[in-house]
Amino acid sequence: MTAAPADLLIDHPAARDGAALWRIAKDSKTLDLNSSYSYLLWCRDFAGTSVVARGADGEPVGFVTGYLRPGRPRTLLVWQVAVDSAHRGHGIAGRLLDALTARLAAEHGITELETTITPGNTASERLFTSFAERHGARVTREVLFPADLFPGGSHDPEVLYRIGPLTESTAL
Questions:
Q1: What residues have CB less than 8 Å from 22, skipping those under 6 apart?
Q2: pLDDT at position 9 over 60
Q3: What is the torsional sign of CA 72, 73, 78, 79?
Q4: pLDDT tops 70 at residue 31
Q5: Mean pLDDT for all residues in the chain
């Protein structure tokens, strides 16, 4: 893996970024694609718990969307992670996760990260297990939503990855 470009800016998303995030998610061919409207709302309403990587031209080249769980406000649930295909292989997703968790540890005292991954999504499995290793945190896994809960019968189960404990020093 080569280093991420030095001119990469890690920033809060803004509503104007919604269309680019939708395109990056669509082009990933692995994420469940939400409506374009949902990405606009996400960039407006969850900008504080999400992050975007901007290239030299200021346009988004990757993102992490997340939120603090209402019943567990010290837990960040990572909703989606995607990097534009032209920018993959440079560690951008890992940098985004590190930056987001460091910010939220300082601002909200998060101590745990959760995400769901479908079986066979090895890129996401590697991303989150390497995040845990970098931060000295444990990873537990359990099926959160079995396949039979999804309508249409064509969705794989979603496996919950719980990573923690995170401390301010491990999140930095």
A1: 33, 34, 36, 39
A2: yes
A3: positive
A4: yes
A5: 93
